[in-house]
Amino acid sequence: MKQDYILCVSEEGYHRVAYTEWGKVNSESPTVICVHGLTRNSRDFDALADYLSGQGSHVFCPDVVGRGDSSWLTNPQDYNFKRYIVDLSNLISRTGAKEIDWIGTSMGGLLGIIMASLPNTPIRRLVLNDVGPEVPIQALWHLAKYVGKDPEFSSKEQAKEHYKKIYAEFGNLTEKQWINFTEHSVTEPSPGVFISKFDPDIHDFKLSWQSVKEFFYHPHRALEGILFDIDLWDFWQKIKCPVLVIRGRRSTLLLPEHIKKMKRIHSEVDFFEVEDAGHAPALLELDQHKKISSWLNGEKISDLH
Questions:
Q1: What gap in Å lies between CA 247 and CA 255, rounded to an integer?
Q2: 35 and 60 in contact (C-beta within 8 Å)?
Q3: Cα gap 181→73, rounded to integer Å
């Protein structure tokens, strides 16, 4: 694994988008891009990327701007889906690949849905980790309770206990996994002070979602706050590539009725469920890695049991 960054540009100047890179170019295996959830970073995919690269894949895991080792933006209004899509498209160009497979957790999956729906998309196969074209308002309210509200910590141990509480639905992580999770989630700006690798200005869902609507639909008036479900069904109907949906059994964000509707609209949807997780499965287990890898190579999940 190596770490690097690309320079992307906005109205305010250039910013860094950091990423980890696993494996090497392989003409027999499409490049894989793994994109994290709203408050997380690229290192959530270390275990999966390590496995996939061991199977011959060339894997890139970016830190979406404002997270991980990427730049923080001066203007909070620039934290929106339009910005993320432009940055991630630049990363796709950086890989040199003509086709890519996309693995997205939560926000990363929403971005994948939008990008896979666009004309001439490079996305060959799409994996959605505990997210679909619809996100219930109740789930958004739950996220709003903690997004951008991480406290300062006096130690990594204190940070670890905090993360155990707010990310409990990721699954039954071992103590070693929680230590690793924490190590990649905090930075120490001054001695004895630890903060999350997440810009606290990323907290306005209205701005992010309004940007999607304006970017693709150009509505005549702005949306009035989070009084609605996120609805990407129009994008979903345009997706042509095969899709694998992963759901945490306790998830309140991706519901069984959403998956049924996804399958009614799209004929190539595969699915498996993670028993001991809610939103969103951490994808740290070997059996999950094997299923994802096999599916990316064209096998049906129903054939893997």
A1: 8
A2: no
A3: 24
Q: Indicate the DSSP class of residue 153.
A: B
- Token reading at 19: 């990423």
- What is the C-alpha separation between 8 and 117, in angstroms, rounded? 23
Q: Which of 72, 284, 282 is nearest to 187 (CA)?
A: 72
- pLDDT per residue as tens digits for the range 179-238: 999 999 999 999 999 999 999 988 755 445 555 545 454 333 333 333 346 789 999 999
Q: What is the distance between the alpha carbons of residues 239 and 266, in angstroms, rounded to a whole number?
A: 8
* Cβ neighbours for 106, distance < 8 A, ≥ 6 positions apart: 36, 37, 38, 129, 130, 131, 253, 279, 280
Cα dihedral value 240, 49, 15, 37, nearest 10: 70
Residues near 147 by beta carbon (within 8 Å), at least 6 away in sequence: 38, 39, 202, 203
d(CA 268, CA 200): 38
- What the block records as the tokens of 211 is 């940007």
Sign of dihedral through CA atoms 94, 99, 103, 108? positive
pTM, full prediction: 0.91
Token duo for residue 166: 């707010």
Write out pLDDT tens, residues 95-132: 999 999 999 999 999 999 999 999 999 999 999 999 99
